[in-house]
């Protein structure tokens, strides 16, 4: 046998051995995960397939035991962090968004990661027109994280007395008013969460909700942003009275930068408030929301309202001391859930009286208008 034929025979034998040990089409890596977008109804996502041998296919969706988490307001600065952190935990996500184009720009890269990310395109300002899509999304989820909000600058006609003192603006306000997205749409989703047996509803409001209606920050927010504090409070109270297990997060000033665990810890106060300005990174607020509903840090029957801030060295100046908080969101949530103060919140809710946001705003606005008219008349008199 010549050298060439010997080498050829050895090559054939080696190939046969390799094929016997490693069948063809034995793929190790998963193909890219699909990224689905729905308007209105939400069909089940197509599954990702993993080839493990010749003709042997496993459905990756079958290995996923947890239901998706519904993130409402997923393209906001907090919402997008919630989505990305959930994806990093291999948690299925339904992202409810108003702007589909923005969502694709934000999460396009996430489409190639595990798990599957779905978009539900809904305008909460016109939630009645999307009721079927909203109900379908909530029915598929055990947990809802609602970090959506409406931004609308006040108009002069908003301060007419018969409008200012009436919380129901449905007869005259446009659909960008926070009455619709911050209260009515949230109440609609809370009712659906109760109907479909949701295990947890997490709602993000703001630290100003814990202050008196006559405090500086709520007055400014109400004056400039269409009484937004009033509708955050209304949403909170609706959720508290719904019997749906909930966590309400009230952060102060939100920051884009992340904190250093060496110098800054996180505080979640079960009294529902904390000292102003209560600055806290958005990434930490997102982590708290996730811990509150996904990772089992809270007993399922426990509900609570938390004032949230960072403590220690945080820009632009320190607030509190680091030892007042905890290094991780999980420790914060667990500590708050074990506090006796949480049990007192339900009792306090029974004695709830809406804060007089209309009166506080009227005193400020009408006094300002009176002063402005007085100065204007003095100026005219001086000129003439």
TrEMBL record:
- The region annotated as signal peptide is 1-20
Q: What is this protein called?
A: NAD(P)-binding domain-containing protein
Organism this protein belongs to: Craspedostauros australis
- Gene3D superfamilies hit by this protein: NAD(P)-binding Rossmann-like Domain (3.40.50.720)
Write down the InterPro entries for this protein, in alphabetical order.
NAD(P)-bd_dom (IPR016040), NAD(P)-bd_dom_sf (IPR036291)
UniProt keyword Heme, yes or no = no
Q: Where are the transmembrane segments?
A: 363-383
Superkingdom is Eukaryota
Where is the NAD(P)-binding domain positioned along the sequence? 73-292
The protein's UniProt keywords, in alphabetical order, are: Membrane, Signal, Transmembrane, Transmembrane helix
The record ties this protein, via Pfam families, to:
NAD_binding_10 (PF13460)
Question: Key word Transcription regulation present in the record?
Answer: no
């Amino acid at each position: 046998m010549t050298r060439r034929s010997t080498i050829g025979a050895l090559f054939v034998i080696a190939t046969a051995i390799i094929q016997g040990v490693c069948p063809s089409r034995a793929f190790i890596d998963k193909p890219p995960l699909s990224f689905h977008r729905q308007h209105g109804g939400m069909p089940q996502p197509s599954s990702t397939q993993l080839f493990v041998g010749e003709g042997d296919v496993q459905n990756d969706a079958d290995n996923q035991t947890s239901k998706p988490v519904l993130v409402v307001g997923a393209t906001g600065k907090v919402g997008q962090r919630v989505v990305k952190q959930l994806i990093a935990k291999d948690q299925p996500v339904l992202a409810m968004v108003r702007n589909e184009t923005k969502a694709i720009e934000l999460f396009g890269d996430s489409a190639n990661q595990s798990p599957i990310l779905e978009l539900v395109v809904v305008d909460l300002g016109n939630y009645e027109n999307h009721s079927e899509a909203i109900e379908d999304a909530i029915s598929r989820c055990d947990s809802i994280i609602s970090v959506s909000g409406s931004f609308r600058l006040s108009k002069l006609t908003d301060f007419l007395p018969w409008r200012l003192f009436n919380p129901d603006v449905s007869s005259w306000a446009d659909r960008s008013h926070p009455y619709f997205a911050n209260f009515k749409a949230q109440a609609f989703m809370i009712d659906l969460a109760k109907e479909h047996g949701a295990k947890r509803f997490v709602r993000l409001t703001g630290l100003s909700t814990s202050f008196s209606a006559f405090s500086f920050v709520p007055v400014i927010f109400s004056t400039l942003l269409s009484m937004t504090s009033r509708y955050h409070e209304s949403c909170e109270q609706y959720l508290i009275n719904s019997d749906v297990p909930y966590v309400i997060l009230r952060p102060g000033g939100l920051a884009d930068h992340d904190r250093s665990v060496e110098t800054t810890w996180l505080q979640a106060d079960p009294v529902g408030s904390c000292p102003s300005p209560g600055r806290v990174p958005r990434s930490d607020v997102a982590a708290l929301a996730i811990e509150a509903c996904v990772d089992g840090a809270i007993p399922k029957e426990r509900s609570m309202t938390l004032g949230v801030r960072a403590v220690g060295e945080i820009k632009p100046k320190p607030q509190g001391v680091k030892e007042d908080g905890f290094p991780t969101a999980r420790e914060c949530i667990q500590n708050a859930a074990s506090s006796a103060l949480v049990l007192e919140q339900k009792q306090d809710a029974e004695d709830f009286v809406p804060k007089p946001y209309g009166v506080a705003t009227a005193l400020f606005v009408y006094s300002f208008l009176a002063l402005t008219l007085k100065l204007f008349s003095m100026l005219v008199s001086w000129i003439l």
